[in-house]
């Protein structure tokens, strides 16, 4: 079962590839493999994402003012303020959902 990325996870992916000076859309399979090999460990990615968020905040012009959480069946959208930091777990989930990282083995409930 594949999940869809949440807006915060999409933002994390955009910031990761923006920090490497690239874009993650409309590429060939070999280019996606190259992007996946470029990515460092989670601590480095966490640092890069939060550094980009701090740069946006310091510039006074955040990329967006709010993030919209809206899914099918909702009666009205839910808005959250633009984040000041993103957790390692959110970055990990974003990479797994987008296919840039393999999920680790998880113990099954007995």
Task: Describe the protein in words.
By secondary structure, the chain is mainly alpha-helical. It contains 4 helices and 2 strands. The protein has helices at 7-19, 29-38, 42-59, 88-98; strands at 66-69, 78-81. A hairpin with an 8-residue loop joins strand 1 (66-69) and strand 2 (78-81). Helix 1 (7-19) crosses helix 3 and helix 1 crosses helix 4 (88-98). The protein starts with 6 loop residues before the first helix and ends in a 12-residue tail after the last helix.
Whole-Å distance between the termini? 20 Å
Q: SSE order in H/E notation?
A: HHHEEH
Rg computed from alpha carbons, rounded to a whole number of angstroms: 15 Å
Strand fraction equals 5-15%
* Average residue-wise pLDDT: 85
Largest sheet: 2 strands, antiparallel
Shape verdict: globular
Number of domains: 1
State the gist of this model.
The chain is mainly alpha-helical and 110 residues long.
Relevant terms:
110 residues; single chain; globular; 4 helices; 2 strands; 47% helix; two-stranded antiparallel ribbon; mainly alpha
Helix and strand layout, with pairings?
Blueprint: H1 7-19, H2 29-38, H3 42-59, E1 66-69, E2 78-81, H4 88-98
Antiparallel strand pairs: 1-2
Helix pairs in contact: 1-3, 1-4
């Amino acid at each position: 079962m594949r999940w869809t990325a949440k807006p915060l996870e999409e933002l994390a992916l955009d910031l990761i590839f923006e920090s490497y000076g690239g874009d993650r859309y409309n590429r060939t399979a070999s280019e996606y493999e190259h992007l996946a090999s470029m990515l460092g460990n989670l601590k480095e990615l966490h640092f890069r994402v939060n550094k980009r968020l701090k740069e946006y905040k310091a510039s006074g012009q955040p990329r967006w003012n709010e993030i919209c959480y809206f899914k099918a069946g909702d009666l009205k959208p839910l808005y959250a303020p633009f984040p000041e930091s993103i957790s390692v777990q959110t970055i990990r989930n974003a990479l797994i959902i987008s296919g840039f990282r393999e999920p680790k083995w998880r113990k099954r409930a007995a």
